[in-house]
Design a protein that fits this description.
The protein is of the alpha/beta class. 45% of the residues lie in helices and 15% in strands. The chain has an 8-stranded parallel beta barrel, surrounded by 8 helices. The structure holds orotidine-5'-monophosphate. Its EC number is 4.1.1.23.
Length: 278
Protein backbone atom coordinates (compact mmCIF):
# COMPACT_ATOMS: atom_id res chain seq x y z
CA UNK A 1 0.00 0.00 0.00
CA UNK A 2 1.26 3.50 -0.81
CA UNK A 3 1.85 6.23 1.72
CA UNK A 4 -0.88 8.64 2.85
CA UNK A 5 -1.49 11.83 0.89
CA UNK A 6 1.18 14.49 1.30
CA UNK A 7 -1.28 17.05 2.67
CA UNK A 8 -2.24 14.69 5.47
CA UNK A 9 1.37 13.77 6.21
CA UNK A 10 2.34 17.43 6.31
CA UNK A 11 -0.51 18.33 8.65
CA UNK A 12 0.57 15.52 11.00
CA UNK A 13 4.22 16.58 10.85
CA UNK A 14 3.55 20.24 11.66
CA UNK A 15 1.14 19.28 14.45
CA UNK A 16 3.87 17.14 16.00
CA UNK A 17 6.93 19.29 15.36
CA UNK A 18 5.61 22.81 14.80
CA UNK A 19 4.99 24.90 11.68
CA UNK A 20 8.52 25.34 10.35
CA UNK A 21 10.45 24.35 7.27
CA UNK A 22 14.19 24.95 7.29
CA UNK A 23 16.06 25.32 4.03
CA UNK A 24 19.39 23.60 3.54
CA UNK A 25 21.14 26.20 1.38
CA UNK A 26 24.90 25.65 1.42
CA UNK A 27 25.89 29.10 0.08
CA UNK A 28 29.62 29.52 -0.52
CA UNK A 29 29.56 32.25 2.14
CA UNK A 30 27.96 29.91 4.68
CA UNK A 31 30.49 27.17 3.94
CA UNK A 32 33.16 29.76 4.70
CA UNK A 33 31.42 30.89 7.88
CA UNK A 34 31.29 27.29 9.06
CA UNK A 35 35.05 26.92 8.39
CA UNK A 36 34.48 24.66 5.40
CA UNK A 37 36.01 24.78 1.94
CA UNK A 38 33.85 25.65 -1.05
CA UNK A 39 34.28 22.11 -2.38
CA UNK A 40 32.16 19.00 -2.58
CA UNK A 41 33.79 17.81 0.67
CA UNK A 42 32.74 21.06 2.34
CA UNK A 43 29.25 20.70 0.90
CA UNK A 44 28.98 17.16 2.22
CA UNK A 45 30.13 18.13 5.70
CA UNK A 46 27.68 21.07 5.79
CA UNK A 47 24.79 18.92 4.62
CA UNK A 48 25.49 16.11 7.08
CA UNK A 49 25.66 18.56 9.98
CA UNK A 50 22.43 20.29 8.96
CA UNK A 51 20.61 16.95 8.68
CA UNK A 52 22.02 15.70 11.98
CA UNK A 53 20.94 18.88 13.76
CA UNK A 54 17.56 19.45 12.18
CA UNK A 55 16.00 16.32 10.69
CA UNK A 56 14.78 14.98 14.03
CA UNK A 57 13.48 18.39 15.11
CA UNK A 58 11.75 20.29 12.29
CA UNK A 59 8.72 19.15 10.32
CA UNK A 60 10.15 19.86 6.88
CA UNK A 61 13.64 20.29 5.44
CA UNK A 62 14.03 22.01 2.09
CA UNK A 63 17.36 21.35 0.39
CA UNK A 64 17.86 23.92 -2.37
CA UNK A 65 19.06 21.97 -5.40
CA UNK A 66 21.12 24.81 -6.94
CA UNK A 67 23.68 24.74 -4.14
CA UNK A 68 24.24 21.03 -4.79
CA UNK A 69 24.14 21.28 -8.61
CA UNK A 70 27.02 23.81 -8.37
CA UNK A 71 29.28 20.82 -7.77
CA UNK A 72 27.96 18.69 -10.64
CA UNK A 73 27.11 15.04 -10.27
CA UNK A 74 29.03 14.68 -6.99
CA UNK A 75 26.98 17.53 -5.53
CA UNK A 76 23.77 15.93 -6.73
CA UNK A 77 24.88 12.70 -5.05
CA UNK A 78 25.14 14.68 -1.80
CA UNK A 79 21.59 15.97 -2.36
CA UNK A 80 20.40 12.40 -2.78
CA UNK A 81 22.00 11.49 0.56
CA UNK A 82 20.40 14.51 2.23
CA UNK A 83 16.96 13.43 1.00
CA UNK A 84 17.39 9.85 2.20
CA UNK A 85 19.00 10.71 5.54
CA UNK A 86 16.52 13.45 6.41
CA UNK A 87 13.56 11.19 5.68
CA UNK A 88 15.20 8.42 7.70
CA UNK A 89 15.43 10.82 10.67
CA UNK A 90 11.74 11.64 10.40
CA UNK A 91 11.61 14.95 8.50
CA UNK A 92 9.55 15.49 5.40
CA UNK A 93 11.74 16.65 2.52
CA UNK A 94 10.72 19.36 0.09
CA UNK A 95 13.22 19.37 -2.75
CA UNK A 96 13.55 22.97 -3.89
CA UNK A 97 14.24 22.52 -7.60
CA UNK A 98 11.64 24.95 -9.04
CA UNK A 99 11.09 22.89 -12.15
CA UNK A 100 8.70 23.89 -14.94
CA UNK A 101 8.52 22.92 -18.63
CA UNK A 102 6.13 21.86 -21.36
CA UNK A 103 3.96 18.98 -20.20
CA UNK A 104 5.80 16.17 -21.99
CA UNK A 105 9.12 17.24 -20.44
CA UNK A 106 7.44 17.98 -17.13
CA UNK A 107 6.53 14.30 -16.99
CA UNK A 108 10.24 13.46 -16.89
CA UNK A 109 10.86 16.01 -14.12
CA UNK A 110 7.94 14.46 -12.29
CA UNK A 111 9.54 11.01 -12.56
CA UNK A 112 12.76 12.46 -11.14
CA UNK A 113 11.29 14.37 -8.20
CA UNK A 114 8.03 12.58 -7.45
CA UNK A 115 8.47 9.02 -8.69
CA UNK A 116 8.66 6.06 -6.33
CA UNK A 117 12.22 4.75 -6.27
CA UNK A 118 13.83 7.88 -7.73
CA UNK A 119 16.87 8.97 -5.67
CA UNK A 120 15.90 12.64 -6.10
CA UNK A 121 12.33 12.19 -4.92
CA UNK A 122 11.59 13.54 -1.48
CA UNK A 123 8.09 14.19 -0.22
CA UNK A 124 7.42 17.24 -2.40
CA UNK A 125 9.06 19.51 -4.95
CA UNK A 126 8.79 23.18 -5.83
CA UNK A 127 7.51 23.85 -9.36
CA UNK A 128 7.12 26.92 -11.57
CA UNK A 129 3.74 27.50 -13.26
CA UNK A 130 4.88 30.17 -15.69
CA UNK A 131 4.54 27.85 -18.69
CA UNK A 132 0.88 27.63 -17.69
CA UNK A 133 -0.54 25.80 -14.68
CA UNK A 134 -1.77 23.03 -17.00
CA UNK A 135 1.81 22.23 -17.99
CA UNK A 136 2.32 21.02 -14.41
CA UNK A 137 -0.39 18.36 -14.73
CA UNK A 138 2.05 15.41 -14.98
CA UNK A 139 3.69 16.53 -11.74
CA UNK A 140 0.37 17.08 -9.98
CA UNK A 141 -0.90 13.68 -11.13
CA UNK A 142 2.22 11.78 -10.08
CA UNK A 143 2.34 13.61 -6.75
CA UNK A 144 -1.25 12.63 -5.98
CA UNK A 145 -0.61 9.04 -7.11
CA UNK A 146 2.48 8.59 -4.92
CA UNK A 147 1.47 10.46 -1.77
CA UNK A 148 3.78 13.35 -2.59
CA UNK A 149 3.17 17.07 -3.03
CA UNK A 150 4.06 20.04 -5.20
CA UNK A 151 4.53 23.66 -4.14
CA UNK A 152 3.65 25.99 -7.00
CA UNK A 153 5.25 29.43 -7.15
CA UNK A 154 2.46 32.03 -6.85
CA UNK A 155 3.67 35.20 -5.11
CA UNK A 156 7.41 34.87 -4.76
CA UNK A 157 9.40 36.68 -2.10
CA UNK A 158 11.71 38.55 -4.46
CA UNK A 159 10.87 42.13 -5.46
CA UNK A 160 10.93 41.30 -9.20
CA UNK A 161 8.13 38.74 -8.88
CA UNK A 162 5.26 41.21 -8.70
CA UNK A 163 5.73 42.47 -12.28
CA UNK A 164 4.68 39.05 -13.56
CA UNK A 165 2.56 37.69 -10.71
CA UNK A 166 0.39 40.79 -10.19
CA UNK A 167 -0.19 41.22 -13.93
CA UNK A 168 -3.71 40.71 -15.26
CA UNK A 169 -4.39 37.51 -17.18
CA UNK A 170 -6.68 37.45 -20.23
CA UNK A 171 -9.77 37.14 -18.03
CA UNK A 172 -8.64 40.06 -15.86
CA UNK A 173 -7.72 37.94 -12.84
CA UNK A 174 -4.23 38.49 -11.53
CA UNK A 175 -1.74 35.80 -12.63
CA UNK A 176 -1.22 34.78 -9.00
CA UNK A 177 -4.99 34.51 -8.55
CA UNK A 178 -5.21 32.17 -11.55
CA UNK A 179 -2.54 29.98 -9.98
CA UNK A 180 -4.32 30.02 -6.62
CA UNK A 181 -7.64 29.13 -8.25
CA UNK A 182 -6.07 26.25 -10.18
CA UNK A 183 -4.53 24.88 -6.99
CA UNK A 184 -7.88 25.24 -5.22
CA UNK A 185 -9.58 23.21 -7.95
CA UNK A 186 -7.14 20.31 -7.47
CA UNK A 187 -7.34 20.48 -3.67
CA UNK A 188 -11.12 20.76 -3.44
CA UNK A 189 -12.55 18.30 -0.93
CA UNK A 190 -9.19 17.06 0.39
CA UNK A 191 -8.97 16.80 4.16
CA UNK A 192 -7.26 17.92 6.27
CA UNK A 193 -5.25 19.65 3.52
CA UNK A 194 -4.68 19.14 -0.19
CA UNK A 195 -1.29 18.16 -1.60
CA UNK A 196 -0.87 21.07 -4.02
CA UNK A 197 0.73 23.89 -2.09
CA UNK A 198 1.55 27.42 -3.09
CA UNK A 199 4.66 29.51 -2.48
CA UNK A 200 3.70 32.91 -1.09
CA UNK A 201 6.51 35.02 0.27
CA UNK A 202 6.26 36.47 3.77
CA UNK A 203 7.64 39.64 2.19
CA UNK A 204 4.82 40.34 -0.29
CA UNK A 205 2.53 42.40 1.94
CA UNK A 206 -1.14 42.81 1.11
CA UNK A 207 -1.66 41.76 -2.52
CA UNK A 208 -5.42 41.37 -2.85
CA UNK A 209 -4.92 37.79 -4.10
CA UNK A 210 -7.55 35.63 -2.40
CA UNK A 211 -6.00 32.48 -0.96
CA UNK A 212 -8.95 31.42 1.18
CA UNK A 213 -10.10 28.59 -1.13
CA UNK A 214 -6.67 27.04 -1.77
CA UNK A 215 -7.08 24.26 0.83
CA UNK A 216 -3.39 23.45 0.52
CA UNK A 217 -0.18 24.35 2.33
CA UNK A 218 1.17 27.87 1.88
CA UNK A 219 4.96 27.87 1.97
CA UNK A 220 6.15 31.27 3.15
CA UNK A 221 9.82 32.08 2.49
CA UNK A 222 11.38 35.39 3.38
CA UNK A 223 11.70 35.32 7.18
CA UNK A 224 15.05 36.52 8.44
CA UNK A 225 17.62 37.26 5.75
CA UNK A 226 15.04 38.65 3.30
CA UNK A 227 13.63 40.95 5.97
CA UNK A 228 10.21 39.52 6.83
CA UNK A 229 9.18 38.91 10.44
CA UNK A 230 6.61 36.66 12.06
CA UNK A 231 4.27 39.67 12.30
CA UNK A 232 4.32 40.00 8.51
CA UNK A 233 2.57 36.64 8.22
CA UNK A 234 -0.70 38.20 9.39
CA UNK A 235 -0.35 41.01 6.89
CA UNK A 236 0.11 38.55 4.02
CA UNK A 237 -2.24 35.76 5.08
CA UNK A 238 -4.78 37.41 7.40
CA UNK A 239 -6.03 35.78 10.57
CA UNK A 240 -6.19 32.15 9.46
CA UNK A 241 -2.60 30.98 9.45
CA UNK A 242 -3.42 27.30 9.88
CA UNK A 243 -2.10 26.31 6.44
CA UNK A 244 0.96 28.56 6.49
CA UNK A 245 4.36 26.87 6.57
CA UNK A 246 7.08 29.47 7.06
CA UNK A 247 10.48 28.51 5.70
CA UNK A 248 13.82 30.03 6.48
CA UNK A 249 17.34 29.06 5.55
CA UNK A 250 20.06 31.54 6.53
CA UNK A 251 18.30 32.60 9.75
CA UNK A 252 18.82 29.10 11.14
CA UNK A 253 21.93 27.99 9.22
CA UNK A 254 23.79 31.09 10.38
CA UNK A 255 23.82 29.60 13.88
CA UNK A 256 26.07 26.72 12.70
CA UNK A 257 28.29 24.82 12.57
CA UNK A 258 27.50 23.54 16.07
CA UNK A 259 24.77 20.90 16.08
CA UNK A 260 23.14 22.10 19.27
CA UNK A 261 23.34 25.76 18.24
CA UNK A 262 21.58 24.89 14.98
CA UNK A 263 18.93 22.90 16.81
CA UNK A 264 18.41 25.72 19.31
CA UNK A 265 18.05 28.25 16.50
CA UNK A 266 15.38 26.08 14.88
CA UNK A 267 13.59 25.64 18.21
CA UNK A 268 13.54 29.40 18.77
CA UNK A 269 11.91 29.84 15.36
CA UNK A 270 9.37 27.12 16.10
CA UNK A 271 8.47 28.69 19.46
CA UNK A 272 7.99 32.10 17.84
CA UNK A 273 5.84 30.63 15.08
CA UNK A 274 3.75 28.46 17.39
CA UNK A 275 2.81 31.61 19.29
CA UNK A 276 1.34 33.07 16.10
CA UNK A 277 0.24 30.06 14.03
CA UNK A 278 -0.60 27.61 16.83
O1 LIG B 1 10.50 28.20 -3.34
C1 LIG B 1 11.21 28.71 -2.47
O2 LIG B 1 11.60 28.05 -1.51
C2 LIG B 1 11.45 30.16 -2.52
C3 LIG B 1 10.47 30.92 -3.14
C4 LIG B 1 10.51 32.31 -3.00
O3 LIG B 1 9.60 33.01 -3.43
N1 LIG B 1 11.53 32.87 -2.33
C5 LIG B 1 12.54 32.14 -1.76
O4 LIG B 1 13.41 32.72 -1.12
N2 LIG B 1 12.55 30.77 -1.92
C6 LIG B 1 13.68 29.97 -1.42
O5 LIG B 1 13.71 30.04 -0.01
C7 LIG B 1 15.05 30.12 0.47
C8 LIG B 1 15.18 31.41 1.27
O6 LIG B 1 16.40 31.43 1.94
P1 LIG B 1 16.70 32.50 3.10
O7 LIG B 1 16.46 33.85 2.52
O8 LIG B 1 18.13 32.24 3.45
O9 LIG B 1 15.77 32.17 4.25
C9 LIG B 1 15.94 30.04 -0.75
O10 LIG B 1 16.31 28.68 -0.92
C10 LIG B 1 15.06 30.45 -1.91
O11 LIG B 1 15.41 29.81 -3.11
Amino acid sequence: MGQDAFGARLAAATAARGPLCVGIDPHAALLGAWGLDDTVAGLESFARTAVEALADTVAVLKPQSAFFERFGSRGVAVLERVIADAQQAGALVLVDAKRGDIGSTMAAYADAYLGDGSPLAGDAVTVSPFLGFGSLRPAVDLALATGRGVFVLALTSNPEGAAVQHARAADDRRVAQVIADEAAAVNAGAAPLGSVGLVVGATVGRTGVDLTAVNGPLLAPGLGAQGATVDDLRVVFGDDLSAVLPTTSREVLGAGPGVSALRDAARRQIDGLRAVIG
